[in-house]
Amino acid sequence: MHYRLPEIGNFTPMKAVFVLLLSLCFVLRASAQRLKPADAKMLRQKEDSLKAFADSMINADYAGRRFLNDSLFVRGFVRALRVPNSFYYPFDSLQSISRLYAPDSSFRLFTWQLKKDEYFYFQKGAIQVKTKDGSLKLYPLFDASMFTSKPDDSVRSRNNWIGALYYRIIEKEWQGKKYYTLLGFDGYTVGSNRKWMEVLTFDPQSGEPVFGGPFFMVQSDSAKKASVANRFHIEYKKEASTTFNYSPEKNMVIFDHLISESDEPHRAETYIPDGDFEGFEWKNGKWVQVKKVFTDVPDEFKRVDPYLGNAPTEDAIRDKNGKIDEKKLEERSQRNAEKAKPKEKPKQD
Description:
Blueprint: H1 14-34, H2 37-59, H3 63-81, E1 98-101, E2 107-117, E3 120-129, E4 138-142, E5 165-174, E6 177-186, E7 192-202, E8 209-211, E9 216-218, E10 227-229, E11 232-237, E12 244-247, E13 252-260, E14 271-283, E15 286-290, H4 326-340
Parallel strand pairs: 9-15
Antiparallel strand pairs: 1-2, 2-3, 3-4, 5-6, 6-7, 7-8, 7-11, 9-10, 12-13, 13-14, 14-15
């Protein structure tokens, strides 16, 4: 099975789709205006040669081959980005690479996930900033998440980035300054996944990207004390599906409330959604946590989304009064255990 970036899908409201289409039209129109035909042709040729490397660095059977193709891809990609006005070229055939334009089109963000083995993933990435003369301004990102046990407690540069495969950029403004909130996925370990939320800004003097800051007002619960965090994440069982995305209509980032399916809150790999939703609301330059977003879950959160993983309400573990249904919890645990079992290979005659 070949890896491909999943689609955003059912969660996106019509308003967000309309904004996305407008942004795409802007990029395509700018592309036609800025890219010379000869440069566009050159970029298409380079993109064709990059596709094989991009696919192999994700899907090759052996780690050595994945790393070799990652190296070849990076070299070729940087050469392609040096073509004048490459900022306006979409590279949309590189399906294993996340390619996100900021809502104001001031920069774009490339990220991808590299698998070392069953126990270890890390991320690669780069930020390309739009320039007036069409020259390349690129900030490579270096994942240092494997070197820290407390990734939520620091402001970081591109040289010690907490890696993620980004799927959303949310632009906000406070007191005349722009803040770009990033939502991303991390395959993390053999037993658990993570989803990240953090704020990206740019240093006004150097122009360098700055990741994180005291932007998250996190409320207390059974697992965490009330605090101010520099970034926020959820960690959950590998086989579980979770929602973590932005609702423009509510002006909130909404995500699943998680519980331990085995009543072991110290083990993140046991966490699964229970049917409730939490969120972060943008207020006065901060993301303020909301512990319960819905009294009745709306229809768009009842659909099963292939990327966001919205759990159907009928599969929720809690009832309307918030009480955990132990039978459903046990059934969910059994299904997850079955999913986790390795499949037997057919015997050869």
